[in-house]
């Protein structure tokens, strides 16, 4: 990712730290709003670079990824429109691609750039399983988890310097590089367990609004746990809650998700 986008921001801009409330979960998080446009711009550049360095798959499986991604996108737009916040998604440049890679993984960059690796398809099995994954990953972007990660790192490292307007461009660049590794390593960006749990909840709702049965999230995560029983855990699960915690949380979140599913015409 190109750090030079962040070097001309100035201390006054960095001082604009605010507590952001997620409109779907109600969770409050510390995010520096002025970073959003720069993060999105760099994410688009990084995504394009990733596509150049990877084998982009075409064919039936790739079309399924685009189909499910499109439905999750529409679900997000429908929800945000229903609460009068369509403007929150105005800068999104949605894109969904299937990449040839044995990793059991998928990710969504800020701004709606999504990649699914072929290695996860045997675990998703079908459209509904894929909707669990894509709903979860899109939720990371919608919730601003990338911004939150950077903001937390900046406050933890520099504290009052941010509010006091004394943080330097070099300090900002250092934090950004640590939060968003340059090059293909950005695909391995890890979020905290609180963020992962929030993405689970949001993803469950998004897949339901999109017309996919949210109850199928439980067997999907069970399959993911089985896939991680080997010597090396998939990146997709590396910082996620324990299987027991995840299933319990999903069961608690299911009643609301099932309301969305029934409203979308499903029978749950």
Structure in a nutshell:
This protein has helices at 11-14, 36-53, 60-82, 121-124, 127-142, 145-158, 160-164, 169-179, 193-209, 217-227, 243-263, and strands spanning 17-21, 28-32, 95-99, 106-109, 113-117. With 268 residues, it is mainly alpha-helical. A 3-stranded mixed sheet has the order 3-5-4, sandwiched between helices. A two-stranded antiparallel ribbon has the order 1-2.
Question: Could you explain how this protein is built, in words?
Answer:
There is one protein chain. The protein has 268 residues and is mainly alpha-helical. It has one domain (3-263). It is 54% helix and 9% strand. It has helices at 11-14, 36-53, 60-82, 121-124, 127-142, 145-158, 160-164, 169-179, 193-209, 217-227, 243-263, and strands at 17-21, 28-32, 95-99, 106-109, 113-117. The strands form two sheets. Strands 3-5-4 form a three-stranded mixed beta sheet, sandwiched between helices. Strand 4 (106-109) and strand 5 form a beta hairpin. The protein is globular and about 50 Å long.
Gross geometry: globular
Average residue pLDDT: 82
Number of helices: 11
Question: Which runs of at least 5 residues are low in confidence (pLDDT < 50)?
Answer: 1-15, 182-188
Sequence of strands across the biggest β-sheet: 3-5-4
Topology pattern, helix = H, strand = E: HEEHHEEEHHHHHHHH
Helix coverage percent of residues? 40-55%
Overall structural domain count: 1
Strand residue percentage: 5-15%
**Classification by helices and strands:** mainly alpha
- Report the span from N to C terminus: 43 Å
Biggest β-sheet description:
3 strands, mixed
What is the rounded Rg?
18 Å
The total count of strands amounts to: 5
Cofactor: Zn(2+)
Family: Belongs to the peptidase M48 family.
Protein name: Peptidase M48
Keywords: Hydrolase, Metal-binding, Metalloprotease, Protease, Zinc
């Amino acid at each position: 990712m190109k750090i030079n986008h962040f070097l001309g921001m100035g201390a006054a801009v960095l001082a604009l730290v605010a507590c952001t409330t997620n409109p779907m979960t109600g969770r409050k998080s510390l995010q520096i709003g002025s970073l959003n446009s720069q993060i999105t711009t760099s994410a688009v550049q990084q995504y394009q670079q990733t596509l150049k360095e990877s084998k982009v798959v075409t064919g039936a499986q790739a079309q399924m990824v685009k189909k499910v991604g499109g439905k999750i996108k529409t679900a997000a737009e429908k929800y945000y429109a229903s609460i009068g916040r369509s403007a929150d998604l105005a800068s999104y440049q949605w894109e969904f691609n299937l990449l040839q890679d044995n990793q059991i993984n998928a990710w969504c960059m800020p701004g709606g750039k999504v990649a699914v690796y072929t290695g996860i398809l045997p675990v998703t099995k079908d459209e509904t399983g894929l909707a669990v994954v894509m709903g979860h990953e899109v939720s990371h972007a919608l919730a601003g988890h990338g911004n939150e990660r950077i903001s937390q790192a900046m406050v933890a490292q520099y504290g009052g310097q941010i509010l006091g307007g004394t943080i330097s461009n070099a300090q900002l660049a250092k934090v950004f590089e640590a939060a968003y590794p340059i090059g293909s390593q950005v695909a391995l960006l890890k979020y905290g367990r609180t963020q992962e749990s929030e993405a689970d909840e949001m993803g469950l709702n998004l897949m339901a609004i999109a017309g996919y049965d949210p109850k199928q999230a439980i067997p999907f995560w069970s399959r993911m746990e089985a896939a991680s029983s080997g010597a090396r855990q998939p990146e997709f699960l590396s910082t996620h809650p324990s299987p027991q915690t995840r299933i319990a949380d999903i069961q608690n979140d299911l009643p609301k998700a099932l309301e969305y599913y029934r409203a979308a015409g499903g029978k749950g």
